[in-house]
Amino acid sequence: MHVLQIRTFLLLLLASAAAASAQTYNGTSLIAGHQIVVYGINNAGTSVGTAGISPRYGYLWLSNGIKQDLGSLGGKYTIAYAINNAGQVVGESETSSRTAEHAFLWSQSSGMQDLGVIGDGNSFAFAINDHGDVVGEFHNSSFDHAFLWTQSGGMRDLGSLGGSFSRATGINNAGHVVGASYRADNTVHAFFWTAAEGMKELDLGLNTPSYANAINDSDQVVGSFINPADGQLHAFLWSPATGMRDLGTLSGKGVAFDSAAYAINNAGDVVGISRIFKAGKTKAAAFSVIWRHGSAPQKLGPLVTPKVGALPRGAFGINTSGQIVANGAGSWLLTPQ
After folding, report:
1. What pLDDT, on the 0 to 100 scale, is given for residue 299?
2. How far is Cα 304 from Cα 329, in angstroms, rounded to an integer?
3. Spatial separation of the C-alpha atoms in residues 103 and 211, rounded to whole Å
4. Which CATH number fits domain 24-336: 3.30.70.120, 1.10.3210.10, 2.130.10.10, 3.40.50.620?
5. Per-residue pLDDT tens over the stretch 55-103
6. Where are the domains of the chain?
7. How far apart are CA 64 and CA 29, in angstroms?
8. Per-residue pLDDT at 243
């Protein structure tokens, strides 16, 4: 084969390999508008979120786009944050007193259940596993603490890392919980909680502020931390076996870049957001991104048909088959082609 032909052949091979590695998606519009956020998705492709300001509605969307109003605990707004594979939904809703918000658990058969609060004040549920165990945060006159709620034990205070604040944002099917808490010095740090060992600071190998957002069934944890090298927020992936990995940010022309990871599936695919700060601009350019198996971040928008723009308000959920919920001018269900 001629040298030129060999070079052309190699270039074609490289191009084919690059095309094969770039996952593309079909986009299904769930709901249009800017006062919309979709937060969670289960393996059936059912997603949950919120729409409106006052009143604010909590919605469930089936994979075909049909939506269902989840109702409320008697007040004017509801936010749905997560859904498990049994179709149970958790979030927060205003009570009939109009002076408090309480965590709720919703199902098709039982409707909306008030999970209550420890002491007085408010509570918010952010995640649920397939056993129906719920985690979140309660607030009373003394402190804000993470909680674990179970059907048999009710709401349990998970404590803190020494400060007055903690929040649980993820739970897997083993009952392992992640989130963030103040230490005694009032700096915020990611935590990992188990029933056997209680709450421990997630060891990222750095003494820097951090926040854990989600955990999968392999105990892989994602979130964000302040990178000491550039002072910016960076997404991370952590596991007990490998420790912390900086997932990095988008790159290109810009003054600074940051990122945050919001969700991870059991295949290790991570979704979130990355922003670019440009000189002379008062507002950052934001993009929903995916880190496939911990690789460099890719903008989701250019991978979707039809065109959906940059999806600047973030990708908050990804299921086992790789379906993603992301937010921009409206909210979208992205299904791998």
Report:
1. 98
2. 14
3. 21
4. 2.130.10.10
5. 899 999 998 778 999 999 999 999 999 999 999 999 999 999 888 999 9
6. 24-336
7. 10
8. 96
